[in-house]
Amino acid sequence: MSFEETEVIRRRAEAFLRNAERLIDENEWDLAVFNLEQYCQLILKYKLLIRTGSYPRTYSLRALIRALGQQTRKILELVENEKYLHYIARLEEAYITSRYLPYTYEEREVVDLYKFVVEVFKHYVESREDSALEQFRDYMGVAREVKDIVKRVDPNARVYVFGSVVRGRYTRP
User: Fold this and answer.
1) Range 39-57 average pLDDT
2) Distance between CA 64 and CA 60 in Å, rounded?
3) Which residues contact 117 (CB under 8 A, 6 or more apart)?
4) CATH code for the domain defined by 3-128
5) Is 136 in a helix, a strand, or coil?
6) Per-chain mean pLDDT for the chain
């Protein structure tokens, strides 16, 4: 999958989170929880894509967290910490419950899940280990810094930026 295609998944995940916030404001509890789960699922798949180039074809947040844990051990706390595991399990249940079962969520449940997602889950998922990817997003800024350093050594030097990142077709091995 190309860098550009991977970014679509990231943007879609962020849209689900924004949509969950809007749905909470509109008291649409069931759909808000579903959107929170979709955010978690897609952002985990995005992180797996940028780290490994693929992700397991599953909807299980626990399975996705464990797969990502092979790359980033710290994220495993989300399934090893009993309190966090309960939140992850509730979000997983929401995938089926909010779509197919006659179950309605209460405001307190939804607000609590939302707080977990934005205050805990995001902290584990958005780690500093992705700084290399961020540099790809800002490749021109990085190129300017390299150019400034090189020019100090050789004022006549030229710096060229080329490759798949420039074309928006970057893939991880």
Assistant:
1) 91
2) 6
3) 17, 20, 36, 39, 40, 91
4) 1.20.120.330
5) helix
6) 87
128-167 per-position pLDDT tens digit: 555 455 556 566 666 777 788 888 888 888 888 777 766 7
Helix (H, G, I), strand (E, B) or coil at 26: coil
Cβ-in-10-Å burial (0-12, 13-18, 19+) of 143 comes to middle
Q: Are 39 and 13 in contact (CB under 8 A)?
A: yes
Residues of the chain with CATH 1.20.120.330: 3-128
Helix, strand and coil content of the chain, in percent to the nearest 5, comes to 75, 0, 25
pTM score over 0.90 = no
The pLDDT of residue 136? 60
Distance of CA 161 to the CA centre of its chain: 27
